[in-house]
Write a structure and sequence with these properties.
This protein is an alpha+beta fold. 50% of the residues lie in helices and 20% in strands. A 3-stranded mixed sheet has the order 3-4-5. It has a two-stranded antiparallel ribbon with strand order 1-2.
Length: 194
């Protein structure tokens, strides 16, 4: 089952749970009339148990309805977020070039470590963490760079673009989207405000 179909099925199930939970809360509260809220749904033993519970019975019905409602809303919201469902690329298998035999396959962690080392070669970058997501050749790159607080931000994009260009040469495609997060690390002595 592909991710899109799976997402739609879980969203429909979550919507069904949310509607069912909302309706049960409304029914228990008497929104549809007191005759419906007092009508028997279960057999006599269960009804007697609920009747003897008084306000506790109402609280249990409302709690069950709210739990179903919240579960349904959670499933709908979590499944409709498309960007968070990207999976890491397990391997990259390159297409054969004309006149060549065999295939070249690289594991994504090796590619990630390579681009991390390339990004760490930028003087002010202290540490780089890179993840490659999607399915080849539609690659998305997410990176976290720990940089010194005196970094030259004007030249950083050009240096990062050079590293991405080298990645493009390696995997024969440019990442469709690149997300960079910069974490600034203080490198100098204590600073004082005048």
């Amino acid at each position: 089952m592909n991710d899109g179909r799976n997402r739609r099925l879980l969203a429909a199930f979550g919507l069904l749970l949310a509607v069912g939970g909302g309706l049960s809360v409304c029914l228990g509260a008497g929104v549809f009339g007191s005759a419906r809220s007092g009508r028997s749904v279960f057999d006599g033993t269960v009804i007697r148990w609920w009747n003897e519970g008084g306000w506790k019975s109402f609280a249990v019905v409302v709690a069950i309805g709210l739990a179903a409602l919240l579960l349904g809303v959670y499933l709908v919201v979590s499944r409709l977020r498309g960007d968070d469902t990207l999976r890491r690329i397990p391997t990259v298998t390159f297409e054969r070039l004309d006149g060549t035999q065999g295939e070249t396959t690289l594991r994504a962690p090796a590619l990630s470590r390579g681009i991390e080392a390339d990004l760490q070669s930028i003087p002010e970058v202290q540490k780089a963490t890179v993840g490659l997501f999607g399915t080849y050749p539609s690659v998305e790159m997410r990176a976290v760079l720990e940089v010194s607080d005196d970094i030259d931000l004007e030249h950083l994009p050009a240096r990062v673009d050079e590293a991405i260009g080298r990645l493009e040469t390696t995997i024969r495609t440019r990442p469709e989207r690149v997300f960079m997060t910069l974490r600034f690390k203080h490198t100098g002595g204590d600073r004082r405000l005048a």
